[in-house]
Amino acid sequence: MKKIISTTKAPAPIGPYNQAVLTGNTLYTSGQIALHPETGELVLDDIKTETKQVMENMKAVLEAANMTFENVIKTSIFISDMNNFSQINEVYGQYFNDDTAPARETVEVANLPKFVNVEISMIAVK
């Protein structure tokens, strides 16, 4: 059985999907981009600020499922320019403990929704 996870503290979906789906003890999140949840505007000041907004959006989705970043077992990071990797990684790393950090993949892609620079999705387990 699946339970739809939704919060107003993260951007509303812009298509036929949900912010996250909980099945059993496993949470599958949709990818988050740097949309500010209150204004709906993109936060693209610089790559670090953009990444922080993505992670704050993800934090809100996790909290809506009564989870934290400690519950995350896998992340997928999609970036439009691998030259931004170190700055994205620096911000991303602030949300995880190195000893318990999840498995991860980082992939450079041609384009992302709304032509943002970074999108992140996660899988978490209670």
UniProtKB/TrEMBL annotation:
GO molecular function: deaminase activity
InterPro entries hit by this protein: RidA, RutC-like_sf, YjgF/YER057c/UK114
Listed transmembrane segments: none
GO cellular component, one term: cytosol
Pfam family, one: Ribonuc_L-PSP
SUPFAM superfamilies in the cross-refs: YjgF-like
Family that this chain belongs to: Belongs to the RutC family.
Protein name: 2-iminobutanoate/2-iminopropanoate deaminase
